Predict the structure.
Amino acid sequence: MEKLRSFSTLSAIDNSSMVDKVEMSLLDFFISKELNVGDSIPKELELADLMGVSRTVIRESLNRLRTMGLIETKKKRGTVIKSPDITLILQKSIIPHILDHSTLRDIFELRLALEVGMADFVVTRATNEDILELFEIVKDEEGQSADILFDIDYEIKFHGKLYEITANDTLREFQKLLLPVYKYIYSSGLLNLPTAQRKFTSHKQLVEILQTRDAEKFRMGMRHHLENHFYRIL
């Protein structure tokens, strides 16, 4: 018993590093073999023999890849490569109230960059029906947006329609993913910083610009529309 106590300062061996290495080796293997969606990968036992590790390590590494959505098990085919759902992966880690302020700020800046940058897609792909729907959304809005934070629900409804117009599924899902972050940032007071007294392009004015089908004007209008947010974070 005394001998056992003398070793009490020893800590348990962490096997996670081996799993990490195997996981990265498997990813390198997929890339080097140029495996595509639907291609089969070797069985657990074969991978264990090839890599010189236990099946337990292989299984845990594969489970990680499965959780990431990179592989899946198909009946009669075994484990195959899968196209991962990017937004689903992010959804598991983007929890607003446990993200630090720096990360929340970065995410909000990403939103601003996306909405200014997607002007060409919106202008090119907006139908007349889309524009009419936007006009319906903004029909009760006053001329220009003053130095205030927009109503969050109204903001989301309008900008959500713009994401829908892009016809880019990843963009649309990404916006849905970030909605809880936007709401949290608005309600947390992170943007309640003083700015110079000025006015900005309103939602209604943005729709009027969109109606001209001029991507550059729409991009500048969107930049000016979001300028109160830029002033609060820059």
About this structure: The longest helix spans residues 169-188. The chain is about 60% helix and 5% strand. The radius of gyration is 25 Å.
